[in-house]
Structure formats: C-alpha cells, structure tokens
Amino acid sequence: MSVFPRVIPVLLVSDGYLVKPLKFHGEKYVGDPINAVRIFNEKQVDELVICDIDASVKGTGVNYTLIEEIASEAFMPVGYGGGVSSANEARRITGIGIEKVVLNTAAAEHPESVIEISDALGASSTVVSIDAKRRLTGGWDTYVRRGSRKTRMTPADAAVRAQQLGAGEILVSSIDRESTFTGYDLKLIESVTRAVTLPVIALGGASGIGDFAPALDAGASAVAAGSMFVLNGKHHAVLISYPTPEQVRMLGTTS
Amino acid sequence: MTVSIVAYGLGNLGSVENMLRRVGARSVLVRTPEEVLESERLLLPGIGAFDAGMRRLNEQGLTPAIKEFASLGLPVFGICLGMQLLLDSSEEGTEPGLGLISGTSVQFPEEANLRVPHMGWNVVEPVHDDPLIAGLETDSRFYFVHSYKVVPKYDEHVLGVTDYGGPFASMIRSENIMGAQYHPEKSHAFGMRVLSNFAAL
Asked: How many structural domains comprise chain A?
C-alpha cells in the first residue's frame, strides 16, 4: 500500500484569531490564521483542518469571509468545522474551495444533518468529529459544544452512528490530552478504529513525529496535531513547523 | 490561455479557480452549450456519483456540446469524477458516459487492509512523456479521493499509473482528451504544474 499516511495540522480559531487552548479550556493567542495557512501551504502540508471554536458555543455562525481568505491561500485539502448544521451552509463552504466539512455538535444533536450534508457533498467530504474524555471508571464519554456538554454515547458508538448516517471520515480527539504533549490516547483510537471501517484521524497529545507511528498502528489512517505544529521549545513559543516529505514517507514504511 | 471550467453543480470550482489564478491562467465558468462551444479548452471537474454527474450534464444540455467540442480536436481535461465521465460507462451507475475515451470505471476490490475510498497522497508513475506532465519531479505526489477507478479499453491511453491494491490508471490521454483521477487543484506545486501545463496546451 503506497498511500502515505496523512499528517494534518489542526488550527483553532476564536474571534478570527488563531488560538491554542489547553484541554479544551483557556486560550493562548497564537497569531493570524491566514498567515499560518500561508506558512503551512509553503511547507506543503498533506491536509489542514480549521475549526472555529466560537461558532457553535457562542452561536456566531459560519465565518465565510475567513473561509474565503483561507481557501485562496490553501492548495491542499482543507476541512472546516464550526457551526455548520445544514446542507446549504456546507454547500456554500465547499463552493468557496474547502473540501471537507467537519461536524461535531450538529452530528450529535441533529443526526439527520449528517445524512443531509453527506447527500449534498458526498461522504468523502463529510467528516464527523468526536471529542472524547476518559471516565474515571474506565472507557470514555463523548462531549459536544467544545467539551461543555456530555452526551450518552461512547466514542465508538458515536463513530458507528456517524458511519451509518453517511460520514466518510471520523476525527477523534482526546480532550484529556489536548496540548499536553503526552502522546495520543492509543486505547481511545483503537476503540474507534475497531468499530468502523471509515478512515479515522487521531488528534490530541502529539509531542513529536515519534508519536505518529503508534497512532497509525492503533488503526488511524491519519494523524493530526495542533500544539505540536504551532508551539515550540520548553516555553512553547509560537513557531510553525511540519515534518519534511521524507519524514512523512518514512511513516508509511514502518506502519 | 483561457480555461473554461464546466459548471454543472458537481465540483469544487472555487479550488480550481483559485489555483488557475495562482498559475496566472485566465479561467471562466461555462454553463451552457453555447459557452462550451466558444471555449479554447475545457476543464471538467467533478465530485460525487457517476449518474448524478451525467444527469446534470444532460439536464444542462452539455453532453452533446462537450462531444462536439471534443470532435474539434480542442483540449478537454477531466479531473476526478470528471475523468470518469469521459469514458463509456461506470459500474457505479447506469447512465452512459461521454464516450470520449473507450473504457469503463470499476470499484476497488473489497480486500482486507484496503480502506475505500482511496483517500490521501500517492505518486503517479508516468508511462511515457507528455506535455501535460512535463517538468514534474520524480517524487511528485497528488491528492486522491475516489472509490472507483478507470479501466481504459486500450493500454496506449494510460498516461500515468498509481498503486493502491494494485496498479490503476491515474492519468489517461487519447489525443486531445485527457484525465487525472487525483485533484490537481489540491496537490500543491505538483498539481499547479499539471494545471499550468494544461492551460498552455
């Protein structure tokens, strides 16, 4: 199999600024999102995901101006998440030049929106993201609205339902590991990749390239990270980095 | 140097326009048979199901116009679903294709370890030199998303080969008709090279 594993930076946007929260709380200002997209484009990243974290929590809706600016600078596949809940919004976003729409709160609270959007865009443009938090008693709960509301589903159940509804890809994030640089929650990834046949993107906890292979071994088709690509050194200064094509290619030969 | 992008409701036109702008090519969206026939070169994008694509082309009256345009010997470039529409038919549907290149599209085989769709970056091995792929470095990679792959009837129409559960035709060309299974508009400098080559044909 010679398709390379995808390595995906995930950028979080709040009030039009690029931010870096920790475990879904508190925000560190990182910079201008368009500038970051430009740098990631120069580094020829495999794919980019941009999530507007205010859109569903504060109900500010989809920021189309920002999406237009991003699309004109990004010559790689881009996924957008944040406040998308209808096929019309999804179509407008893909029409601007964004490939994939990421659904989180809408997928949990209005499952029919996944069917509607998958019918309109095709499954491969419909990503359902699942935010998971470890239970003290073992296993995980799934949260929506930026980790503020617990649902009744386990991440594996939520993934199975997303697959049935017509999603083409699952993005599974560990709330406990976000920005902790402690590695992926491999058991969480495994619980989701075993439950579905869809490609699964792992997010949360990556500290370096060394964390990618275990996540891929746990069944992930792609590895994503936020902090690792935008913060650097022990003081976590803002510095955008990304592995070279050779480093990404090497991952494919080891997994 | 103007590329006419066929707008039939299925495809990421924004991305294609953005990249053509970046390579300095003029582009225009064409929606009617008349606009198709006034074009210098046609780019047929497309995302989605085969029948949905052909029905949209038929409803807009574009099928005969694209065939007539092709018969003039002017360049036609299909990307992703747009490439599959260039052939006679597809296992994915029942509608006849444009029939500009002999062959059909088939589904990837159901095999363990082969996740379908084929989604992500992969390499294209050129079968022979061609102006469409001139100037590409040997380690060029392209972004793919597809569940069906084309099988041209004649081997000489295969321009590039990619491996996913076995080799398949990822680029095809028969004289002025050409296609790429990947998304050049989302494939960084590698896709830019292909689109700018097409714009200069």
From this structure: 1
